[in-house]
Amino acid sequence: MSKYKLFLLRHGEGAWNKENRFCSWVDQKLSENGVVEAQECGRLLKEQGYQFDQVFTSILSRSVQTAWLVLEAMGLEWVPVTKSWRLNERHYGALIGLNRAEMALNHGEEQVKLWRRSYDIMPPPIDESHPYYAEIYNDRRYSTCDVPKEELPKTESLKEVLDRLLPYWNDVIVPVIKSGQMVLISAHGNSCRALLKHLEDISETDIVNVTLPTGIPVLLELDEDLRPVKPRQLLGDQAKIQAAIKKVEDQGKANAQNK
Ligand SMILES: O=C(O)[C@@H](COP(=O)(O)O)OP(=O)(O)O
């Protein structure tokens, strides 16, 4: 029997999603389309009668902005929003800023798929010569984390994302859900994939085939031990959702638009 409901949400489209560049820890805002996606998501949730008591986001603006727009559309601006770097997008290391289609042309589509979707393959780490290194590590938000700045990742596989996310899930989010509060996690494609892997016990092979589109709420119905009692539901027009998933998958093809 379903005891708890939980929503996961990949933020609305960001400027670099549109340009097909790995965004990761670079702090990009939502595109105009991303703003509309987040507002539509909030309207849909309201229409379907959902309410939230607490929202958790990463410390990247696109996930925070999405949470605000969803809450505004639902008339729930007062709801507390808690932010943690542990919900940040996966750290894509030296790939940050690069265009996926160009990477597919240079390294092959298979390699790009391995970098993007495999469970335990890490891209090469970012170093000080990288054009976005200073922007990321000099950003004051990374002095506020619960680990020293020097210990923050320089690259991550999905496995490392899960390793840094799980303590936050277990210690902070789980008690809130178990207290009966309705929670929205407004995060990123890969931080949500990592959490789905954990909650749905998805194998390392099968997680490769899980892709989340931007701005689509994912409803999980969980039992008292927070195990899913039915398959996840992506809310909205199912044909549009499938097209949006394919678009994200196709970003790693050599002939993708916005090369
Ligand atoms: O870092 C990025 O560019 C995307 C994910 O990229 P892919 O894993 O889909 O390549 O993350 P998000 O837009 O969810 O923050």
From TrEMBL:
The active site is at 11 (tele-phosphohistidine intermediate), 89 (proton donor/acceptor). It catalyses: (2R)-3-phospho-glyceroyl phosphate = (2R)-2,3-bisphosphoglycerate + H(+); (2R)-2-phosphoglycerate = (2R)-3-phosphoglycerate. GO terms for biological process: glycolytic process. Its EC number is 5.4.2.11, 5.4.2.4. Coiled coil: none annotated. CDD domains: HP_PGM_like. Pfam families: His_Phos_1. Substrate binds at residues 10-17, 62, 89-92, 116-117, 189-190. Keywords: Glycolysis, Isomerase. GO terms for molecular function: bisphosphoglycerate mutase activity; phosphoglycerate mutase activity. The record marks 188 as: Transition state stabilizer. InterPro entries: His_Pase_superF_clade-1 (IPR013078), His_PPase_superfam (IPR029033), PG/BPGM_mutase_AS (IPR001345), Phosphogly_mut1 (IPR005952). SUPFAM superfamilies: Phosphoglycerate mutase-like. It comes from the Eukaryota. Plays a major role in regulating hemoglobin oxygen affinity by controlling the levels of its allosteric effector 2,3-bisphosphoglycerate (2,3-BPG). Also exhibits mutase (EC 5.4.2.11) activity. Belongs to the phosphoglycerate mutase family. BPG-dependent PGAM subfamily. This is Phosphoglycerate mutase. The gene is LOC122142439.
